[in-house]
Amino acid sequence: MADKLIDLRVFADDGGRMNLSLTDVHGSALIVSQFTLFADMSRGRRPSLLGAGDPNRARALYEAFVQRFRERGIETSSGSFGAVMRVGIENDGPVTLVLSSDDWPTRV
User: Fold this and answer.
1) Is residue 81 among the annotated active site residues?
2) Which residue range is the domain that position 46 belongs to?
3) Which of 6, 8, 40, 88 has the highest local Cβ count within 10 Å?
4) Catalytic option among 35, 38, 65, 81
5) Which residues in the chain come in under a pLDDT of 70?
6) 69 part of the active site
7) What phi and psi values does residue 58 have, to the nearest 5 degrees?
């Protein structure tokens, strides 16, 4: 997944087309873990984290993901796994991409 993200052509070329990768634009990365993505909100009003994966395995996967970016020569900053962090973001562009190694049925 790290290699796919690094090589994903999502940055605009001189013609304005999404045709350049993170390496092409000499970009950097900020990688922050977000365990709440595994929350089950199918019932009630409180997210359930009972189905979340093992935190030790999650930490190892997170650290391997960050390490792969660094191995590929990407300047990479990372958050503290499991910590409460406030991160600001400024989106640039008309698209939002969802990457998953699992099947992702279209949600319209």
Assistant:
1) no
2) 2-78
3) 6
4) 35
5) 35-38, 104, 106-108
6) no
7) -60, -45
